[in-house]
Design goal:
CATH topology: CNF1/YfiH-like putative cysteine hydrolases
Order of helices and strands: EHEEEEEEHHEHEEHEHE
Bound molecules: zinc ion
Shape: globular
Number of domains: 1
Number of strands: 12
CATH class: Alpha Beta
CATH architecture: 4-Layer Sandwich
Largest sheet: 6 strands, mixed
Strand content: 15-25%
Strand order of the largest sheet: 3-4-7-6-8-11
Length: 227
């Protein structure tokens, strides 16, 4: 049940998307994005299913690679089909269990809308034992960087306790991964692996907050077929 998080390294896109931009909705040359996605597929060795993310909580069950559905989470029980979530500050969430995997796009809005709970409910239908589920929260903007208005911080923290934070400069902010860890604990999920890497502070990652016009990196999860 491997998971993988990409970076800017190794792709063909030109600035401001320089590197392995996997987002086809950000203004990058479509030929470059297609070439980068082909590089990802060859690195993984399986087809990769993307989605059209809309900061919601809709989950799609996929059984073969096809056109991207409008969704913010994907789950599958099919070995050899990789699922990808695209991010540039939002949290890429990867779920791994024996027999099923999933990915979710958890930014401020998706987290508050309950995208994790929706993904867990979809995985439940595959008979996944939540205590045995391994969840990885990948690189994302950190609580020391993600400044938001005070009213927004209060509203999000009301919906997702533990997400309120403070920037280095003392301004109100959100710590998305802290909020997600709380949601996962409340849902009875087993081990959670939390990246401490901040997209806004890492030159090798895309960050919308830092750069505006930029690319997207991916979190990917798949079931390895028996060999
Ligand atoms: Zn940061």
């Amino acid at each position: 049940m491997p998971v993988l998080v990409t970076s800017r390294d190794g792709g063909v896109s030109a600035p401001p998307y320089a590197g392995l931009n996997l987002g086809d909705h950000v203004g990058d040359d479509p030929g470059s994005v297609a070439a980068n996605r082909k590089l990802l597929v060859s690195r993984i060795g399986h087809p990769v299913q993307f989605m059209r993310q809309v900061h919601g909580a809709r989950v799609c069950v996929v059984r073969e690679a096809g056109p991207p559905p409008e969704a913010d989470a994907l789950v599958t029980d099919v070995p050899g089909l990789a699922l990808a979530v695209l991010v540039a500050d939002c949290v890429p969430v990867m779920f791994e269990a024996p027999g099923a995997v999933g990915v979710a796009h958890a930014g401020r809005q998706g987290m508050a809308a309950g995208v994790l709970a929706a993904t867990l409910a979809a995985l439940d239908e595959f008979g996944v034992d939540r205590a045995a589920l391994r969840v990885t929260l990948g690189p994302a903007i950190c609580g020391r960087c993600y400044e938001v208005p005070a009213a927004m911080r209060a509203e999000v923290d009301r919906l997702v306790p533990g997400s309120a934070a403070t920037t280095r400069a003392g301004a109100p902010s959100l710590d998305l991964r802290a909020g997600l860890v709380g949601q996962l604990a409340a849902a009875g999920v087993g081990p959670v692996v939390v990246s401490d890497s901040c997209s806004a502070e890492s030159a090798d990652l895309y960050s919308y907050r830092r750069d505006g016009r930029t690319g997207r990196f991916a979190g990917v999860a798949w079931l390895e077929p028996c060999r």
